[in-house]
Write a structure and sequence with these properties.
Elements: H1 2-8, H2 43-50, H3 54-64, H4 73-80, H5 91-109, H6 113-119, H7 137-155, H8 168-184, H9 194-207, H10 223-228, H11 234-249, H12 267-300, H13 302-310, H14 316-324, H15 333-346, H16 351-363, H17 365-368, H18 373-381, H19 389-411, H20 423-438
Helix pairs in contact: 2-3, 3-15, 4-15, 5-11, 7-8, 8-11, 9-11, 12-13, 12-14, 12-16, 15-19, 16-19
Length: 439
Amino acid sequence: LDRVRMQGMSSPSPFGQSLASSPVIGAPITPHVVPPAPPTPTVDDLALFSEDDGLKILRHMSISGDLQGTAIRSVAWRVFLGVLSGKPDQWIDQCKAHREVYEQLKKKHIIDPHEIEAREKADLSLNNPLSQDETSPWNQFFQNRELEKEITHDIVRTYAGTPFFEQRWVRDMLIRILFVYARENSGVQYIQGMNEILAPIVYVLHTNKMVPNFSARPRDPMAPFHVAMDAAYLEHDAYTIFHHLLVIVGRWFSLPNREPSSGPVSRADVSATSAITDQAANNQIVNQCRYIHFTLLEAVDPHLASYLKDLAIEPHLYMLRWLRILLAQVFPLPDLLLLWDGIFAWGKQAELLDWLCVSMLATIRHLLLGKDYSICMQTLFNYPPTSDPRILLTTAVHMLDKYNKMKTREKTPKPTPPREPTLLQGLDRQASFIIPTLA
């Protein structure tokens, strides 16, 4: 048993330790390779979330690119995504509730058989590494290790070359969050690309982190910021934001499983169900790509849409990865964060993301028109770097506004033109005019 146990624990794992010894929770941040710190939030920043017109100003800042470099980006994202709501003094209880949920999920899904064995009198027929029983903690532990290996394979390649993401504590945190999400949301599971969505969230939370100092002054008006940006709960807050964001884009990864069968389920049944849900998710995102191209792009740039259609370029061939991971592999991280500011601020189920895709196409139309299939595909797969991503945002907003006005005009009933009088009606009017004259 000891030999099998050692084989199961041969490589270091973020799950092979107690929650109390987590390298993130309650531990100081690694002092080296820290992103540049933005300014500290001010009372004026707090007013943006307190006053009626504040959110309008905040959304305008996000669309125009002015949220970049501020100390409140991570809080603004949570407000835009619905993680935090109401006035700032309500955030404290909301943050506590969200963090408690994640803490319970970790306890539920991160299993260490050694702890179970030491903590309670376990049934050795179940609590041993050779048990194949589904309720065996060792059986679940080995299944967890397989999922962990799959996630780790992607995490080590996430923003490779960026020092922040190459730190061990950052990688372990990303692995834990994705693992807990996959275990808790079995209908979605883990799919490559989720790591690309989570990584920028962790980065932004880390750049906006604060060391809480409100305990000595519980009535400090800045207490909501100190709680919401508490560095000790970076992992908890990253999970919460990621979960809310996947509510929007999760439909493009997979769909919830069907109702559980009343009888035994075979491996073939599970594979078939997975294939069905994966195919449904693929169909959904392919249809979204076609909608963006054949409806939205056609409405604002019919010449470009027609040209790409004549080349037989299917939109999902290049656009699928734009949508599924929110442009994460298309733009460098600073530009991506600026685009996410606008996407989250606009709300409405990431509607602005559709128009950003249209804006991206319209911006490089001079590189596409007149080119053959291979050159166009190469350009679309390797989107040219932009000198200012704010241009893409403002163009997307302009196109969306223009499109909505056009649709409104189409829905507005046109005034009915006056009907031409019939011959009989004309004769009657002439008669009524002539008869009095004759009289």
